[in-house]
Amino acid sequence: MSDARDIRESLAAEAGEILRQRAEALARTAEEDTAHERTALLVYRVGAHWYAVAVDEVREISRDHEVTSLPCVPDFVRGVVSIRGEIVSVTDAAVLMGISRSDRCTPDPVAVVLQNDECTTALIVDEVGGIVDVPASGVEPPLPHMDQTQAEYITATVFLGDRLVSMVNVDRILQPVGAGPE
């Protein structure tokens, strides 16, 4: 009887070791996958609120720009600017997203040049906070109580430390004037 018991105990120990090794391998794979599923974001402030766009949607940042105003355009279009010889529209993020001008306090706004396959615009923001790398698991749906004017421009939220940052839908910002949300 002791031989049968010894064999069972040996098999149980071997099975336990195999299961432990498999669990460690699965944990390593999950950690490696999570490390690869990250998003680089450019964080910026408009008024008292923080927003972010994916770095791959940002062409450049311009601090030195002279805007030429245009007649008969919506309020959120400040005009156009020449960036290295290319004429680019200038979009005022505060006006576009319905952020009160009383919240804006920056005398020298920054232009974040956003671009997709169809359009380019220089988005005027108050401050660029930098580039952060966030795990995909940290990106959450937008808050349901968000102002409806802003809601159509926000795709997700992410906490960066104690700061809640809203991720902006660049394709919506770059839609032609007069085109509604998809």
Write up what this structure looks like.
The chain folds into two domains: 1-36; 38-173, CheA-289, Domain 4 (OB fold (Dihydrolipoamide Acetyltransferase, E2P), Beta Barrel). Helices cover 26% and strands 38% of the residues. It is built from four helices and eleven strands; from the N terminus they run αβββββαββββαββα. It has helices at 2-36, 93-96, 148-151, 170-173; strands at residues 38-46, 49-54, 58-62, 77-83, 86-92, 110-115, 120-125, 127-135, 139-140, 154-160, 163-168. A hairpin with a 2-residue loop joins strand 10 and strand 11 (163-168). The longest helix has 35 residues, at 2-36. The radius of gyration is 25 Å and the shape is elongated. The model has no long low-confidence stretch (mean pLDDT 81).
Structural class: alpha+beta
Topology order in helix (H) and strand (E) letters: HEEEEEHEEEEHEEH
Characterize the overall form: elongated
The fraction of residues assigned to DSSP E strands is: 35-45%
Radius of gyration: 25 Å
Please report the distance between the alpha carbons of the first and last residues: 74 Å
Poorly predicted runs are none
Number of strands: 11
| Major sheet description | 6 strands, mixed
The CATH class of the largest domain is Mainly Beta
Domain module tally = 2
Query: What's the average pLDDT?
Result: 81
Gross CATH architecture of the largest domain: Beta Barrel
Summed up, the helix count is 4
CATH superfamily of the largest domain: CheA-289, Domain 4
CATH topology of the largest domain: OB fold (Dihydrolipoamide Acetyltransferase, E2P)
- How are the strands of the biggest sheet laid out side by side? 8-1-2-11-10-9
Q: Work out the helicity level.
A: 25-40%
